[in-house]
Amino acid sequence: MSSHKGWVLVLGSSSGFGAACSRALAKAGYNIFGVHLDRAAGLQRVSELVAELQATGAQVRFWNKNVARDEVRLEVIAGIAETLTGKPVDFGGLALSDENNRDAALTILSKALEDHKGAIKAMLHSVAFGSLQPFVSDNLKEQTSRKQMEMTLDVMANSMVYWVQDLARTRLVDRGSKVFSMTSAGSRRAWGGYGPVSAAKAALEAHTRQLARELGPRGILVNCFEAGVTDTPALRLIPGSDVIKEEALRRNPGERLTTPEDIAATFVALMDPRVRWISGTTVRVDGGEDTL
Hints:
The protein is of the alpha/beta class. It has one domain: Rossmann fold. The protein has 9 helices and 7 strands. Strands 3-2-1-4-5-6-7 form a 7-stranded parallel sheet, sandwiched between helices. It is globular. It starts with 6 loop residues before the first strand and ends in a 7-residue tail after the last strand.
C-alpha cells in the first residue's frame, strides 16, 4: 500500500464534479476508487483521467459500471476488498445478481474486510442521469412516465442510500469517514423540464439528513454540496440551460459561474480531520449566488 492518506470512493468519477474532485483529492494525497458509466467513445477520456491521477502518485482503480445496479455495488466492494487485501474474495459460487444471496455476500465481504474498517475516508455521490421531460403534456410521449420518474429517483437519489448501506455493513465507511452528495438549487425551484431531477435532488437532501441522523453515533458525517450554476455536460442537457446560465451570471456577486474546481477545493478542505462537527446539512458552494 502507498503512504497516502487513504481511499476516496467517487461515484460518477469520469467527468464534471466527480472528475474535478478526483483530481483535487489525488493531489491532496488520497487514493481514488471511481465508478462511472461511459460508452466506448468516452473511454479514452477516462483513460487519460486515470493516468493524470496516477501521475500524482495516487493508487487508482476505476470501474465502468452502472452505479444503480445492486450487483454492481457488490462487485465494486469485492474489487475494493481485493485491492486492500491483495487477494480476490471467494464467494463460494454465489451469484451476486441473485437478491436472495445479498446478505450472504455482504457477510463474506465483511469478513474479508474486517482488518480494513474505515478504509474509505470519504464517498462522493455525483451521479447525473435522469429524465428531463415535463410532467404534463398533451403528447404522452413527451411527458414523464412512471418508469422515467422511478429511474431518475433511483439513480440520482436512492442509489446513495444503497451504497451507504453496503459500505456501512462492511465497515468500509466507519468512524471518521465522510459521505457527500451533489444537490442543486433545483431541489426547491421549478425549471422547465426539470421536474424528475428536482424531485430527485429534494429526495437526496432528505436522505442526507436521515443518514446523518442514523450514522452520527458511528462517527460518520453526511452532507450535500449545493453547487451554483455550473457549465457541465449535465447542465447543458437541461432545456433552457443558456437562460439559466445568463440568470446566474446576473445574480452572482462574484460575476461568474461556479466551476467543478470550486466544489473540489471545498471537498478537500472538508476532508481535514479537524472538521468533525458538520453533518446533515447542505453546504452551498456558489459565491453567494443563491442569496440574491
